[in-house]
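Researcher: Next entry: Solute-binding protein family 3/N-terminal domain-containing protein (Kinneretia aquatilis).
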Amino acid sequence: MSTLARRALFSLLGSAVLAPPSLAQEDGPLVVRHALSQGQNAKVLSYEQVVLQLLLDKTVPSHGPYRLEASEVVSQNRAFLQIQSGEIDLISAMTSAARERQSLPVRVCLYRGLMGVRLPIALHSRVAELEAISSTAQAQALRTGQVADWPDTQILAAAGWRLERLPRLATFVEMLRRRRVDLFALGATEVYPIVDAQPDLRVLERWLIAYPAAFYFFVSPQKPALAERLRKGWDLVLADGSFLALFERTVGTQLTRARLAERLWLRVPNPDLPNETPLLDTRLWHPLVRSRLHQAEGR
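Model: Predicted structure:
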């Protein structure tokens, strides 16, 4: 080997050793196989995708490029089995102790705790009757529909609510129309686009159901580097205000319409909320969630 060739080889090897490992892209862009679609509403899906892209974009300088790949929509229980096995890399959902055992939770709530603030949905013809509810005991006696594999079902069942378990979200409209259930409840940040598409349904305006809850990104245990990258992204977007701006831009109109502060809050405990939930980090929660739920429970 000539002297010139040896110098070129040593120069190349030196560059490889000195290159920051976080910037190395041995196999090209990071591929993130996600299942963010919950089969319910395009606006909800779009928000969660945009948050994910925001976190990944913020970490491109430190971690390199990425590519998102959408997977088939499945039930939440099935999605967590796929996460656990490594079949997919990332999903978003409400947390529970069991779900955190199956995955790597990235403990920043995409909805600032507002997925636990549930607005009741009823037939238009029954609004006057159901708006008269004034206590938790009255609401518990109603037949409330909930999707069987959602954590909400376990939370309400543990508190003694009368539940009708539904196999999937799409069935709740027909269950209301057939009067198989009296009401169905959805999160304050998701309910209006869904109900507005059904002319005979209404979102009740005088009361709501509320429990401490967090809606996270969950990562496969086989992808710890992805979880760490997302945590770094959250640190950046919470510090520079870009997440809060996105949140207000995306769901602010729905929250204004919901008039949460004017409603009666029927509080329900959440015995399955993991102890690791960062309830004391005020950056992560909506002010009403902190004052009406966390502080009311002494958290």
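Model: Note for the record: The chain has two domains: 29-113+213-264, 115-210.
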